[in-house]
Amino acid sequence: MDNNSKLYSHREQLNTLVCNVFDEFLKLDTESTNTIDSLNKQLDSLKDDYNSMLGTRVSEHNEELSLLNDKISSLECELEDVKKDNSNKDKLISELQKKVNSFTEETSENKFDIIRGQAKEIAAKDKELIRLREELVKAKQGIMDKQVTMDKKNIGWSPTSSPTPALPVEEVKLDDPKEEDPDSDSDEEYEMITYRKNNYFMRNNKVYEIIKDEDGDDDVGKCIGNWVKQDSGKFKLMKN
Length: 240
Prior knowledge:
It is built from 2 helices and 5 strands. It has 240 residues and is of the alpha+beta class. A hairpin with a 2-residue loop joins strand 2 and strand 3.
């Protein structure tokens, strides 16, 4: 009897222990399930927050990207406009530079021709003045020589006829340079021109070479062409 009692007692204890373990297991399982549910909810919430934040970031990024693309397109258009404007300005500057160079070259050439022509004209006038002075001195000397000769011969004079006898004086004409040789080419009829860094004499649009005479001075050579004005307003040497 005692053994049965003990056995029963042990059995009851075992049942109680099993029940307690089972209850503890159920309690742990419930707590575990609740914890998992809570963690799943937190995870879902985190996923929702992340997806929402990611969507916001993507939307903001797309907007920024769109703005950047628009700005790039605008800058590209402005760059093309600037390139066209610079190209037009370069063409305008090139045309203006050509005009300035042409005007400078033509002005310098014209000034040089004018100065050379004036210098040649002054030199020719100086030569002409010297020649006229020499002719005048010769004429005066001829008059004096004739007066002396007539004094010696006593032509048309008597001590009783007149206290102031009039000596016959012949009119002496100075040589007119234009009457010496109407076909000759005098220096004052020519002007000096420069064409392609070479100097020439010109008269009546005829261009002549410049040669040196025996004294080393410039003299007129053969005719080599005509001085012709072009449609552009410039002159050009048209050689024979």
